[in-house]
Amino acid sequence: MADSVRAALEERRGFVLLPFAAIAGLVVAASVPQEPAVSLLAIGWVVMALALAAARSVAAVRATVILAAAWFGFSLLPLHGALLGTQMLARPAYGTYQARVDEILSETLSEKRVIVSAITPVGDARALPIRRARLVVKAGPDLSPGDVIEGPFRFAPVPGPIYPGGFDTQFHAYFDGIGSYGSTTRSPAIVRAGSEATPEHVIDAVRRGISARIDASLGQPAAGIARAIINGDQSAVTDGARETMATAGIAHVLSVSGLHLTIVAGGVFAVLRLLLSGWEGLATRVPVKRVAAAAGIAAAVLYFAISGGNVAAFRSTLMILLVFGAVLFGRRALTMRNVAIAGIVVIATDPASVFRPSFQLSFAAVVALVGAYESLRSERLRDASLAAHAWAYGKGIVVSSLVAGAATLLFSVYHFQQTSPLGVLGNLLSLPLVGFVMMPAALLAVLAMPFGLEGPALAAMGWSIERMLDVARLVSGWSAHLSASPLLTPLALVIGVVALAWFAFLRSWWRLLGPLLAAPLVVLLAVDRPPDVLVADTTQAMAVRGPTGLELADGKAQSFALDVWRETYAEPIATAAAVRCDSVACIGESSAGFSYAIVADPAGFEEECGRDLVVTRIRAPGWCAAGVVIDADDLASHGVHWLRWNAATETFEMRPAIGSLERPWRIRP
Fold first, then answer.
1. Which residues contact 349 (CB under 8 A, 6 or more apart)?
2. How many Cβ atoms are within 10 Å of 437's Cβ, its own excluded?
3. What 3-state DSSP class applies to 359?
4. ∠ at Cα 32 (44, 409), nearest 5°?
5. From the first residue on, what is the mean pLDDT of each consecutive set of 10 residues in the chain (669 residues)?
6. Residue 520 exposed, middle or buried by CB count within 10 Å (0-12, 13-18, 19+)
7. What is the pLDDT of residue 436?
8. CA distance 416 to 47
């Protein structure tokens, strides 16, 4: 193994570790309780420069560069916060405002979700310190990017995570410059229409036109899936179709990513190269391969422009630009170095995306696939029979599905508590439809739309979507009793990233040691336990462990927090907990062995503060001697609370969803 590591270093393989070092720095920067001072960052860069100048060996230079990449990652969040961040709204605001529409996230018949900026109060409305806000606009006129609208708006603070370790809405909103979530109380009016010549307006008009043509030609659920594949707009995908595809392991088809961009750009490259090569005399005068590569680049960029530009699409577009760029300059195209370059660009331009599932899943999949290609690539089948090509294609799907599925499994389980045990089968049966019918039909449909001739292509696309859903239903039915939903701690992600870095760094079969060791390490060190108590911060919802699992001790049976808890912890939370209530408090006994009280009136503290747990939506007195007290201040400062009872010590392990408030994306109550 030492020889393999030495060989990797000697061939400058260490470059592929740079994005992983930057990710490590980002993780540390996001975890520290306070914002790093500018002076500390500057001192760090001075130290790195001095260390690089003092390095006297190649090994020392490489080690310093990797440390500098880690410090680069550590510096990115403060830098991006200063450039793109915003002050977060701390208390609700109501009134009449004007605002500029920057982006339309999704649109249905009843509402639109938009991003607005330049928020200006009208009349006696309170001025807001935020840069941008995300609004739900009920009905009203058709909106386009650049429009200035005016109406009665209601702005609210951005909510925190729904459970500890869950998606941190405040963190990501801050780096997107979004300081508030809001809605309109009445339909707004367009004060000034945006210029139709701006790029964002043109792209939005194209996307709208494509969606309208799809909706006119296809019914649901095919129309929603077609819009997701072409436009990147998943708002019209039905819940049933999404769940079925996820269970069958083919939900990745809904998100514009490497699969889609490769088929489109690669298809344009292959077709154009074939046509130009068959043009007698042209191939001797024109570099056909380079011309086709340039066309592939153009196709990828245009597809990215109309697809909504998510992280996976951005990373995939970068990879395609690097691959076809290598073709243009006569270099080897598919290398781990290109993956590292794409990763560094994404990290540098959008560091917060590192903490999103889309980046983690796409980055893990592409590292694993390129590594497998390096290890398993064979000679091209130029003169092979049709059967040999078909066999190679099927084998490629199986191997790709296995490799990508294994690489993303840990991240999928952590973020979604969901596995697809028959995902390889689902991909094997559905990807030929996607590759040979669905995506070519989508490309032909978009090209034919300016001439009004998209009908046959959209019909073919709709047929392939329906057949894909038939396959998904079949596979999901077979795997209905095979699914598992383990809970993992954040340490699992650290183990996964280290294993991925090991795999990317080495080229010999020693590269498999990291992933193989990751599985037992996760089982031994990173498997989490379900909670015995969950307390919501912005609603009355409270769930407590009972004889049937988590039971509803307080609040309404239907709320967003409860829906997320049910999905995350795989518990129905449908049974009402056995509590006894009077005018001041509700009390109960958990089957886990602790007693609790939900105090609604200050008069209840004197009698109930001897219990193991007291939860109250008002401020608790300092003398309350309960084992754990969670009051209004705790919920306002630290959000949702997770508790686990230790019967041996008769104490609670408690995890708040929000830790330190000394970060710019946190909202002080």
1. none
2. 17
3. helix
4. 105
5. 50 79 94 90 92 85 91 94 93 93 83 91 92 90 88 93 92 94 90 83 85 90 90 84 84 76 78 73 69 85 79 76 78 76 89 89 84 66 56 62 77 77 74 84 89 91 93 83 76 92 84 88 91 93 93 90 90 90 92 94 91 95 92 94 94 94 90
6. exposed
7. 82
8. 41
* Long-range contacts, stretch 252-256, CB < 8 angstroms, 24+ apart: 253/225, 253/229, 253/430, 253/434, 253/468, 254/225, 254/228, 254/229, 255/228, 255/310, 255/312, 255/313, 255/358, 256/228, 256/229, 256/232, 256/303, 256/307, 256/308, 256/310, 256/312, 256/313
pTM of structure: 0.85
Contacts of 437 (CB under 8 A, 6+ apart): 460, 461, 463, 464
The Cα 570–Cα 572 span in angstroms is 7
pLDDT at 305: 82
Are the beta carbons of 293 and 235 closer than 8 angstroms?
no
- Helix axis angle, 357-376 relative to 311-328, nearest 10°? 30
Q: Amino acid letter at 313?
A: A
Q: Reduce the DSSP state of residue 76 to 3 states and report it.
A: helix
Which SS3 state, helix, strand or coil, does residue 307 take?
Answer: coil
Residue 50 contacts by C-beta under 8 Å, 6 or more apart in sequence? Answer: none
* pLDDT, tens digit, 9 for 90 and up, residues 326-337: 777 777 666 788
Provide the pairing of β-strand 178-184 with 132-138. parallel
Alpha-carbon distance 201 to 146, whole Å? Answer: 7
Contacts of 103-110 spanning 24+ positions with Cβ under 8 A: 103/145, 103/200, 104/143, 104/144, 104/145, 104/204, 105/134, 105/235, 106/233, 106/234, 106/235, 107/235, 108/235, 108/236, 110/138, 110/139
Token code pair at residue 276: 């130009």
Q: Are 32 and 538 in contact (CB under 8 A)?
A: no
- In the chain, helix, strand, coil percent, each to 5? 55, 15, 30
Q: For position 268, what pLDDT does the model report? A: 82
Amino acid at 417: Q
**Residue 8: per-residue pLDDT:** 47
Query: Taking a C-beta distance cutoff of 8 angstroms, is the pair 200, 146 a contact?
Result: yes
Closest CA to 17 of 367, 439, 274: 367
Residue written as token pair 């179709």: 241
Q: Quick one: DSSP state of residue 284?
A: T
Q: Which residue has the tokens 């459970």?
A: 163
Find the length of the chain.
Answer: 669
The vertex-171 CA angle with 166 and 173, nearest 5°, equals 110
Q: How far apart are CA 505 and CA 499, in angstroms?
A: 10
Count the neighbouring beta carbons within 10 Å of the beta carbon of residue 128.
Answer: 21
Q: What is 181-197 written as a DSSP string?
A: EEEESS--EEEEPPPTT
- 625-644 pLDDT tens trace: 899 999 999 999 999 999 99
**What's the start-to-end Cα distance of the chain, in Å?**
54
